[in-house]
């Protein structure tokens, strides 16, 4: 699969952009684990144009994580075009437009998935960004605003006509948020539309190698994107890739999984500070499947999520590893 001149290989598996998740450290770990391409956290066009330091820092790219996309969101064509120009100076391989974020503080203000209620402006934003940058521009969106307005099969070709190089579709509407089960039927229908010449990438509920293979085999997508399934489990990319290539999963060992989690924690602390770094990483610790099925785990889990020093957190994790090893 190619996005512009960027060759991502056969059946690529990408890390989805996620706010407060896909920071540089996590992206690099996922890349090392086999992710074909990684995406930054959401970057606000308005904040980028205003040169807000915390937003500008989201543009930081490590050469080792390439190919990497910077994802921007906003609700005005000119601001989005200007933000795309600023983002391009950080030298991403791709600029991605977020028309899919469903959270109230984004969609409720007309950006992200909120643009699905104003298709003329959505298309105007896409055209303005494509015209202002030289790198490939891609779009990530949803099936539609709600179940009565699943418009992706009509919207896809129109976005293609704006000049985008690839389209990622999350198999839910905005009104669904992240509830229920992702519906890949319309993603497959869009991919099989003879009008579509650009890659179609599917996203939603990919949490294991078998689901990844099913997405390719059943719906014919060019690539898949893993989001929440990677939180606290960056090794999912290694396991998916091994299954796609051989039909068997090369399971990552317990020791390696703990090493990766500890690396995330330490790099988060190094990048922020001890207090903020630990707060940042708790989302990964709360979501990781590594602790699933441990009997009577609740007291230990509470200790882990309340630990406020690096040494205390490392001590709890060592206890957990011992419990799993003996189990």
By DSSP (H or I, 4+ residues per run), the number of helices equals: 14
Order of helices and strands: EEEHEHHEHEHHEHEHEHEHHHHH
Average pLDDT over all residues: 96
**How many strand units?**
10
Secondary structure category: alpha/beta
Instruction: Going across the biggest sheet, name each strand in turn.
Output: 3-10-9-8-7-6-5-4
What does the largest sheet look like? 8 strands, parallel
The radius of gyration over CA amounts to 20 Å
Q: End-to-end distance, in Å?
A: 42 Å
Strand content: 5-15%
Question: Which ranges are low-confidence, i.e. pLDDT below 50, for 5 or more consecutive residues?
Answer: none
Q: What fraction, in percent, of the residue positions are helical?
A: 40-55%
Shape: globular
How are the SSEs placed, and which strands pair?
Blueprint (H helix, E strand, L loop, with lengths): L1 E2 L2 E2 L5 E3 L8 H9 L5 E7 H5 L3 H4 L11 E6 L3 H12 L5 E6 L4 H4 L11 H14 L4 E6 L9 H10 L4 E5 L14 H7 L8 E4 L5 H11 L3 E4 L9 H11 L7 H18 L2 H14 L10 H9 L3 H17 L1
Parallel strand pairs: 3-10, 4-5, 5-6, 6-7, 7-8, 8-9, 9-10
Antiparallel strand pairs: 1-2
Helix pairs in contact: 4-6, 7-8, 9-10, 11-12, 11-14, 13-14
């Amino acid at each position: 699969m190619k996005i512009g001149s960027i060759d991502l290989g056969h059946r690529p598996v990408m890390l989805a952009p996620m706010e407060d998740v896909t920071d540089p450290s996590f992206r690099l770990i996922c890349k090392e684990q086999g992710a074909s391409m990684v995406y930054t956290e959401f970057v606000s066009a308005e904040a980028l144009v205003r040169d807000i330091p915390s937003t500008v820092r989201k543009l930081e790219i490590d050469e080792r994580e390439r190919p990497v996309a910077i994802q921007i969101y906003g609700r005005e064509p000119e601001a989005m075009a200007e933000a795309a120009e600023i983002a391009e100076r950080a030298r991403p391989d791709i600029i991605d437009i977020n028309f899919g974020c469903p959270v109230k503080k984004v969609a409720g203000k007309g950006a992200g998935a909120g643009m699905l209620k104003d298709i003329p402006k959505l298309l105007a934003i896409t055209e303005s960004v494509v015209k202002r940058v030289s790198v490939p521009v891609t779009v990530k969106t949803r099936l539609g605003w709600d179940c009565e307005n699943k418009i992706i099969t009509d919207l896809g070709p129109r976005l293609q006509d704006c000049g985008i190089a690839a389209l990622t579709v999350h198999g839910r509407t905005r009104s669904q948020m992240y509830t229920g089960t992702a519906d890949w039927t319309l993603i497959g229908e869009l991919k099989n539309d003879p009008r579509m010449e650009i890659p179609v990438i599917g996203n939603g509920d990919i949490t294991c190698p078998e689901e990844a293979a099913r997405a390719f085999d059943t719906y014919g997508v060019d690539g898949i994107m893993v989001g929440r399934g990677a939180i606290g489990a960056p090794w999912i990319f290694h396991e998916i890739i091994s299954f796609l290539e051989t039909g068997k999963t090369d399971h990552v060992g317990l020791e390696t999984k703990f090493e990766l989690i500890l690396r995330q924690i330490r790099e988060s602390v190094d990048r922020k500070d001890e207090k903020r770094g630990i707060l940042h990483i708790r989302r990964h610790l709360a979501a990781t499947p590594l602790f699933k099925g441990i009997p009577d785990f609740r007291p230990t889990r509470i200790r882990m999520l309340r630990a406020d020093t690096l040494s205390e957190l490392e001590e709890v994790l060592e206890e957990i590893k011992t419990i799993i090893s003996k189990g």
